[in-house]
Structure formats: C-alpha cells, structure tokens
Amino acid sequence: MEPFRELCKLAGRAVGEYRMIDEGDRILVGLSGGKDSFALLHVLHHLRRHAPISFSVIAATFDPGFPGFRADAVAAYCRERRWEHRIVQLPVAEILREKQFENSPCVLCSRLRRGKLYGLAARLGCGKLALGQHLDDAAVSFLMSLCRGQGLTTMGPNVLAKSDGAIRIIRPLIFAPEELIRRAAAGLDLPTAGECAYRSTLESGDRAYFRALLDQLSERIPDLRSQLLRSLSNLQPAHLLDPAYLHLEDSSAKGTD
Do residues 140 and 214 lie in contact, with contact meaning Cβ atoms separated by under 8 Å? Predict the structure, then answer.
C-alpha cells in the first residue's frame, strides 16, 4: 500500500477507535515544521475531505525565534494549499536564559509552547489540539515512565489538557510507526523549516537515549512496535502491583455473594 494512504488508514482507525473527532469540531493542529506535524496536517485535511462528518482544521506554528527557523516557509506552504495557518511568536532562547533552563530546555519550552497553543485554540474557538506524536513517541514515553518510576503511562490518544480542561489533546498518528511517517512525508515535498537551537542538548537527553534503545530492541524483536501497541492497548491492572486494584477486586467479589 502507498505510504500516505496507509498512514491515512491508520489515522482513520485511531480517530474512530478513540472518538477523536466529532461533528462540527474546530481542530487546531500544532505544526512545528517537522515531518510528523506536516504529515498530520496532510492526513487531517485528507480525512476532512472524505469523512462522513464536517469539521474544520487550523494549523498553528510556534516560532521560538531561533536563528534559521523559518516560520515564513511553513506559512507559505500552507498558503499555497489554501490551508488556514497562524504563527505564534515567543523569544524562547531569551526566556530560557532568564529562567536558567538552558541545560534542560524542553521542560520550560514545552510548557510555553502548549500555553500559547491553548490560548490560541481558545481565541479561535477550537476545542481540540491535534499533535503529531506517533507510535514510536508513545513507546519511548512508556519506557521513560517505566524506567524512571513515573508509573505505567504514555501519551494518551484523546485526553483533556492538564492545564486547560476545556481543550482535548488528540493524537491521530498514535498507531503509525515513525518509519511509515518518514516514507509518507518523502512524497509531500515539504519545506525546510529549520531545527531547534538546543538539538545537541536534546541528543544527550533521556528521550534520545530511550529512542535509541527502542531501535536496539527492534533488532532482536522486529515487530516490537506492533507488540508494544498491543500491550499498551491491553491493560491488565489486576496483574500489576497497585494495591488499589486488589481492593476493588475484593469489593467486587463481595458484591456477587
């Protein structure tokens, strides 16, 4: 199957299974300028044209003010396709210096980016924010949470925003492996938007380490990603160590006597 068509099929399945899109939805898409978010935007416009329901899509690019980052190229790409697009500007490097977060930029930058996107979504009347995280991202987040003692968690496909209960975050590419997105994006003639000024810092961080570990595990288990997806979709809390579930089972058993 042609990569983009396969990507749309997986996204359509995820949207349906997790009820991500409803009639009349206005969806704000976080368009970073990378392959994942561009692929997501293309997929959502494809689904919008073929879905049995009506919904609208607005793209938004967060411009951090890094040298070489070309929000204008992203805007021009959207304009050529007559896609609605907004730019949100914020001097991230200056704020990171002031707050002394230059050694761990992702924590604060992510918070700033989300806050700005939530605010824009509210102003535009968008109840949902679509992000381009995919199956590899979900798997890496799960491994990070597992190994850092943060619980058995990952990126939810359809969740309420923690800091804004009026907005839901949806991830239509959650079933798609990164390699498929890479192949699909290769046929989309995407512009070069630039990259994060803190890329070298990110490459030595936890997420990069666990991403490399995922690839290493895949050498031994070729279908690792699909198996992880199956496991993440098959929760069995009674066979874990949280005592709360034991109490729930006890109460349920008593109620059936």
Answer: yes
